[in-house]
Amino acid sequence: MTEQNSNNEEAVDQDKELQKVFPFFKSWRALYTFVLAELVVLIILFYLFSNYFS
Q: Which long-range contacts (CB under 8 A, 24 or more apart) does 13-17 make?
């Protein structure tokens, strides 16, 4: 039972650490979703720019 409490405390500590580092995201999943969406937007923009200026 103490091992389970220890794991819960570690998860809470990680969440608090995440909030200090990334105040706009409430979870790692939200951060990774944002990064992936930004990548897609950049790929589309680079594609459009390359077609326009070629």
A: none
26 vs 30: CA distance, rounded Å: 7
What confidence tens digit (pLDDT) does each residue in 26-37 have?
Answer: 788 888 999 999
Determine contact, residues 54/46, Cβ cutoff 8 Å.
Answer: no
Q: Are 35 and 27 in contact (CB under 8 A)?
A: no
Q: 3-state SS of the chain: helix, strand, coil percent to 5?
A: 85, 0, 15
pLDDT of 42 > 80? The answer is: yes
Judge whether residue 22 has pLDDT over 60.
Answer: yes
Determine which helix (DSSP H) or strand (DSSP E) holds 24, and give its type and residue range: none
